[in-house]
């Protein structure tokens, strides 16, 4: 079975401006969303309390709301969680008392609403929340720096910049989607974003590797054509891997349970955007950055020449002619 | 034909390794190393606690004041105005001639800075000693909480220090909310037993004095444990501050009420004996965590260093108090910084959901690879299965815990580990179409694909390492599974499948049916 004929070359670069336009639109929309609607930070980063309770019957959300209205937890938000008999109560404050925490209090307060079991109590105090936020930002920043350094080292700086731009593109759009659908941002979402980072980079590197190979071996010397050749040749690989990952993430989204839902959703968006960007966007940046094939070939040729001269000298030296 | 090539041999060894070491985890046998489930999967309690280390410094100041008082009483030195505040002990020596004796005594207390103004003394702790006190307060709190939980009878409690002031407590296997609450109560109980002298001179003023007036006399007002309206006026500086308690056991009095018998060490016993001998007719307040449990009259000198706490405990309570006293007092109070508690039923649901996702995701990839690549797909799938076995084995060997994000990591690895095989197969197809021989296509396919696979894997690995370094708890689990998965895929997807192709190469060349082998016409 084959999806794409491997000898067909698609003219991706010919239509790169419309795609760059579409991407700019998506990125700008995402940024606007992030600044106006913002992210719905969960307790991991903001601090606060989550109490998850499972009722024997359908959860009486209205009763819970009414009872909490008269307590100090009147700003609590109550939502169904996964199934109609399960609810999550989110409270902005946290308690520092070990022996008697908000979970215990909820147990008392909610007694009149029916038979239930408290299945999860997460409390994050302000100190830990701040620390997690700090670590999260550090992780993201550090990942980008390390990637930049590695790709520069293995390829060339323009490849590195293009891949970072493509990554920024993917992450901003994924975060836009998180904001649009009001997904609660906790540590798992951060992990998902970092995974997207790795995954999308994977895709981009495979394409870039082909471009590097094309630059060295192709008879073409126009960058656009080499890029078209390379992207077309990796097309079936990119789509295939994306498809398998996509399938897996979809099953995770559908069957992984409510807790893993936000993670799976973010991954889903990331896989789609990441695949799109490595086919249509990453290499376009390379072309826009005016990567020059001739310069690269001259440099490579010089490198090779120097290596050959060295070898020749060594050979002469070993034969004793010098 | 190279049926036994080195790649195949390594692959075969890794299959054996993967299967053998994964067996204990799959069958959950009693012996052998196996993966343990994280708290989010098996249910349990995770807490991060902060130690209020400043309290330990105050309590040390108090102990110094107690020592000074005991020494002065013992040596018949006349001192006056012994008082403490947050950072210092203050007192005045009445007789000038006794100054050298007092100085000699103070020299024996380490980490003390003594300043004198004529006859009045001010004692403060050196900065170095304050640091040491804070540091040892945290280690002591870790030790104390660990002892208490060990005696509480839960399986595998873990108490670890984190950073300068924090402690992480993990309790797997908590079944009910009541059990969890009992454990939390036990952890947070200060269990500070103080024996204090009732101020008999002003005992009748206890209901009229304010706290600040009381403190002018060096007294504090404490409430009765059973009746908050009943108050006692006691000397601020305790006779004994609980650090001398070496044993505590539950017993029952004549009325069959639970009481706690405690035993003091030899220093404690001596101080207690001396005090009671001197104070016959006065009252002694038995104070636990700032509440008066009883205040019996001292009828005679009490030697032997034992005493009892009574005062309306339930049997369960008495048991927990005794555990707490035996394990030692918390040197300072602890408060909750973070808590994650997962009920066992939720954990079971999570295991079920993620297993379904894992199995169905796996099956889809499996079928897809065979449909698309035919026998090349089968070979890739062999590598994939081996990969999962290796992940499980390596995690079991290192005693790693499997968390929910870790499960997600394995699911993702399934999706990504086939990537290497997709890249290789695509390259082989390309070369075959260009008219190369089967042998050359396989050889060049692998070498052409290698550079891309390596670069891609290294970058993902770098991100995983950063995730591990900056992630907490469950996220670390995700990073671990991803990293092991990537490394294992080098062994299985690259080396392993290459070995299989090498062995089959002759057969494929003879067969000439490339559609059957690579799904290509």
From TrEMBL, chain A:
Gene3D superfamilies: Multidrug efflux transporter AcrB transmembrane domain
Annotated membrane topology: Multi-pass membrane protein
Domain of life: Bacteria
GO annotation terms (biological process): intracellular protein transmembrane transport; protein targeting; protein transport by the Sec complex
UniProt subcellular location: Cell membrane
Protein export membrane protein SecD/SecF C-terminal domain ranges (all copies): 108-290
Family annotation (Pfam families): Sec_GG, SecD_SecF_C
Key words of the record: Cell membrane, Membrane, Protein transport, Translocation, Transmembrane, Transmembrane helix, Transport
A GO molecular function held by the record: protein-transporting ATPase activity
Transmembrane segments: 17-36, 136-153, 160-183, 189-208, 238-256, 262-287
GO cellular component: plasma membrane
Quaternary context: Forms a complex with SecD. Part of the essential Sec protein translocation apparatus which comprises SecA, SecYEG and auxiliary proteins SecDF. Other proteins may also be involved.
Sequence similarity: Belongs to the SecD/SecF family. SecF subfamily.
Function of the molecule: Part of the Sec protein translocase complex. Interacts with the SecYEG preprotein conducting channel. SecDF uses the proton motive force (PMF) to complete protein translocation after the ATP-dependent function of SecA.
Protein name as it appears in the record: Protein-export membrane protein SecF
């Amino acid at each position: 079975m084959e999806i794409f004929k491997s000898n067909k070359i698609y003219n991706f670069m010919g239509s790169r401006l419309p795609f760059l336009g579409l991407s700019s639109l998506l990125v700008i929309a995402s940024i606007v969303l992030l600044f106006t609607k913002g992210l719905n930070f969960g307790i991991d980063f903001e601090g606060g309390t989550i109490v998850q309770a499972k009722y024997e019957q359908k959860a009486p959300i209205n009763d819970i709301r009414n009872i909490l209205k008269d307590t100090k937890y009147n700003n609590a938000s109550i939502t169904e969680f996964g199934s109609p008999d399960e609810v999550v109560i989110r409270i902005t404050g946290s308690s520092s008392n070990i022996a008697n925490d908000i979970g215990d209090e909820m147990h008392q307060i909610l007694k009149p609403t029916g038979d239930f079991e408290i299945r999860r109590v997460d409390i994050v105090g302000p100190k830990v929340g701040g620390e997690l936020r700090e670590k999260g930002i550090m992780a993201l920043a550090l990942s980008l720096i390390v990637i930049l350094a590695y790709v520069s080292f293995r390829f060339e700086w323009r490849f590195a910049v293009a891949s970072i731009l493509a990554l920024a593109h993917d992450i901003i759009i994924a975060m836009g989607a998180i904001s649009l659908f009001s997904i609660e941002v906790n540590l798992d979402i951060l992990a998902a974003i970092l995974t997207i980072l790795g995954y999308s980079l994977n895709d981009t590197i495979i394409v870039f590797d082909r471009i590097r190979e094309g630059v060295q071996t192709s008879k073409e010397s126009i960058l656009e054509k080499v890029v078209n050749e390379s992207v077309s040749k990796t097309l079936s690989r990119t789509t295939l891997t994306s498809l398998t990952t996509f399938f897996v993430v979809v099953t995770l989204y559908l069957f992984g349970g409510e807790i893993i839902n936000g993670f799976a959703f973010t991954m889903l968006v990331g896989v789609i955007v990441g695949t799109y960007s490595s086919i249509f966007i990453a290499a376009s940046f390379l072309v826009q950055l005016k990567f020059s094939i001739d310069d690269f070939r001259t440099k490579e040729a010089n490198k090779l020449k120097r290596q050959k001269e060295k070898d020749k000298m060594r050979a002469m030296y070993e034969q004793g002619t010098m | 034909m190279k049926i036994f090539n080195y790649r195949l041999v390594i692959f075969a060894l890794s299959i054996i390794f993967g299967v053998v070491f994964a067996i204990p985890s799959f069958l959950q046998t009693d012996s052998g190393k196996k993966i343990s489930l994280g708290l989010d999967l098996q249910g349990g309690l995770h807490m991060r606690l902060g130690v209020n280390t400043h309290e330990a410094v105050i309590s040390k100041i108090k102990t110094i004041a107690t020592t000074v008082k005991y020494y002065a009483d013992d040596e018949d030195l006349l001192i006056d105005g012994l008082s403490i505040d947050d950072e210092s002990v203050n007192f005045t020596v009445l007789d000038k001639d006794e100054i050298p004796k007092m100085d000699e005594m103070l020299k024996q207390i380490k980490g003390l800075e003594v300043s004198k103004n004529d006859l009045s003394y001010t004692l403060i702790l050196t900065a170095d000693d304050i640091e040491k006190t804070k540091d040892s307060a945290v280690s002591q709190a870790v030790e104390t909480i660990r002892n208490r939980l060990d005696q509480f009878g839960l399986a595998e409690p873990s108490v670890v220090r984190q950073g300068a002031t924090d402690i992480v407590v993990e309790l797997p296997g908590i079944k009910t909310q009541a059990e969890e609450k009992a454990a939390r109560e036990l952890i947070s109980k200060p269990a500070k037993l103080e024996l204090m002298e009732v101020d008999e001179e002003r005992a009748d003023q206890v209901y009229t004095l304010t706290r600040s007036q009381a403190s002018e006399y060096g007294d504090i007002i404490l409430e009765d444990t059973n009746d908050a309206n009943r108050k006692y006026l006691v000397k601020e500086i305790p006779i004994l501050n609980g650090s001398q308690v070496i044993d505590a056991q539950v017993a029952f009095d004549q009325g069959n009420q639970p009481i706690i018998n405690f035993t003091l060490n030899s220093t404690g016993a001596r101080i207690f004996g001396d005090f009671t001998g001197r104070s016959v007719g006065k009252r002694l307040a038995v104070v636990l965590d700032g509440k008066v449990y009883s205040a019996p009259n001292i009828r005679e000198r009490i030697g032997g260093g034992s005493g009892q706490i009574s005062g309306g405990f339930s049997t369960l309570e008495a048991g927990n108090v005794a555990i707490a006293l035996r394990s030692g007092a918390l040197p300072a109070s602890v408060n909750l910084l973070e808590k994650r508690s997962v009920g066992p039923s939720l954990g079971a649901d999570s295991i079920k959901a993620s297993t379904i996702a894992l199995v169905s995701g796996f099956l889809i990839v499996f079928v897809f690879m065979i449909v698309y690549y035919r026998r090349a797909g089968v070979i890739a799938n062999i590598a994939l299965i081996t990969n999962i076995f290796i992940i499980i084995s390596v995690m079991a060997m290192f005693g790693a815990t499997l968390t929910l994000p870790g499960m997600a990591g394995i699911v993702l690895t399934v999706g990504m580990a086939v990537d290497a095989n997709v890249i290789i197969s695509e390259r082989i197809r390309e070369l075959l179409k260009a008219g190369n021989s089967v042998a050359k296509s396989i050889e060049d396919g692998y070498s052409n694909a290698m550079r891309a696979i390596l670069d891609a894997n290294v970058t993902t690995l770098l991100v995983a390492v950063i995730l591990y370094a900056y992630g907490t708890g469950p996220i670390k689990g995700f990073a671990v599974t991803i990293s092991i998965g990537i490394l294992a895929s080098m062994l299985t997807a690259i080396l392993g499948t290459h070995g299989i192709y090498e062995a089959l190469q002759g057969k494929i060349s003879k067969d000439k049916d490339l559609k059957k082998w690579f799904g290509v016409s």
